[in-house]
Amino acid sequence: MHPSPSQDRKLAQTRRGWFITVEGIDGAGKSSHIEAMAGALRGAGAEVLLTREPGGTPLAEQIRALLLHESMDAVAETLLAFAARRHHLQQVIVPALAAGTTVLCDRFTDATFAYQGAGRGVAWPMLEQLEAWVQGADTREAGEGQTAVPPWHAVVPPGGCLQPDCTLWFDVPPAVAAERLQQARTPDRFEAEARSFFERVAAGYARRAQQAPQRFVRIDAGAERAQVGAQVLEALRARGYLAPHGLPGH
Ligand SMILES: Nc1ncnc2c1ncn2[C@@H]1O[C@H](COP(=O)(O)OP(=O)(O)O)[C@@H](O)[C@H]1O
Ligand SMILES: Cc1cn([C@H]2C[C@H](O)[C@@H](COP(=O)(O)OP(=O)(O)O)O2)c(=O)[nH]c1=O
């Protein structure tokens, strides 16, 4: 349903929330720090939505269960990851950002490039096309009444592609991550992959980071837990996310 003109005005007056994602290979330590990140952002006065991919809506969580436990080929995996993402964006992320909420998301599209692209060999340009489509506001052919409705246009310009403002990349040697996971939990379909798979996934993250150096902040996730936590807080501070909320953002 279209928001009313007064809702439109309210959306236009609200500074859109920051979109922060956390990435890295399995065992990098993301889950160990994400609650503290949310806490630090809340402490600075932000309204924070903590969510994850694949997942974040009941439908996308069902897709997550399929991705993690059912065998399928890499193209099916890619399409399911993007289908879950579209639903998550549409239902949760875009409305939250439009309302000024900071969205902190455990994995996003960089994971698809790293896992399905670099890990499984799905062509990079194919992923770029899907990214532009799924994260774009305008999904239909141009024409009167054919562009996407608010709140998409409150968070991404017409023709644009919604990207995180900042991605904290937990970079860790795959051998270290594997050692941690061995002691931690029963592996899912991805965690059960060979070391060579995670070498490729890690290289995929490095490639994405190189392609968007302003967006990525590299965290040395091989360090001791407290040091990783300190790096994470420093990254948030350096980007201005821990400044008292309500100041003009972007
Ligand atoms: N800096 C660290 N040093 C040693 N072990 C860690 C560190 N960070 C996390 N761990 C442990 O490694 C395992 C994987 O961490 P987790 O946060 O679940 O990673 P991810 O969410 O990135 O897969 C957990 O058992 C966790 O306690
Ligand atoms: C978002 C996403 C995740 N994944 C994979 C990476 C992870 O192995 C898995 C689930 O991620 P994660 O939430 O990190 O798992 P856990 O709860 O076990 O820490 O999904 C993809 O392969 N493609 C994607 O697009």
From TrEMBL:
<dbReference type="GO" id="GO:0006227">
    <property type="term" value="P:dUDP biosynthetic process"/>
</dbReference>
<dbReference type="GO" id="GO:0006235">
    <property type="term" value="P:dTTP biosynthetic process"/>
</dbReference>
<dbReference type="InterPro" id="IPR039430">
    <property type="entry name" value="Thymidylate_kin-like_dom"/>
</dbReference>
<dbReference type="GO" id="GO:0006233">
    <property type="term" value="P:dTDP biosynthetic process"/>
</dbReference>
<keyword id="KW-0547">Nucleotide-binding</keyword>
<feature type="domain" description="Thymidylate kinase-like">
    <location>
        <begin position="22"/>
        <end position="130"/>
    </location>
</feature>
<keyword id="KW-0418">Kinase</keyword>
<dbReference type="Pfam" id="PF02223">
    <property type="entry name" value="Thymidylate_kin"/>
</dbReference>
<keyword id="KW-0808">Transferase</keyword>
<feature type="domain" description="Thymidylate kinase-like">
    <location>
        <begin position="160"/>
        <end position="228"/>
    </location>
</feature>
<feature type="binding site">
    <location>
        <begin position="24"/>
        <end position="31"/>
    </location>
    <ligand>
        <name>ATP</name>
    </ligand>
</feature>
<dbReference type="GO" id="GO:0004798">
    <property type="term" value="F:dTMP kinase activity"/>
</dbReference>
<comment type="function">
    <text>Phosphorylation of dTMP to form dTDP in both de novo and salvage pathways of dTTP synthesis.</text>
</comment>
<dbReference type="GO" id="GO:0005524">
    <property type="term" value="F:ATP binding"/>
</dbReference>
<keyword id="KW-0545">Nucleotide biosynthesis</keyword>
<dbReference type="InterPro" id="IPR027417">
    <property type="entry name" value="P-loop_NTPase"/>
</dbReference>
<dbReference type="GO" id="GO:0005829">
    <property type="term" value="C:cytosol"/>
</dbReference>
<protein>
    <recommendedName>
        <fullName>Thymidylate kinase</fullName>
        <ecNumber>2.7.4.9</ecNumber>
    </recommendedName>
</protein>
<comment type="similarity">
    <text>Belongs to the thymidylate kinase family.</text>
</comment>
<keyword id="KW-0067">ATP-binding</keyword>
<dbReference type="InterPro" id="IPR018094">
    <property type="entry name" value="Thymidylate_kinase"/>
</dbReference>
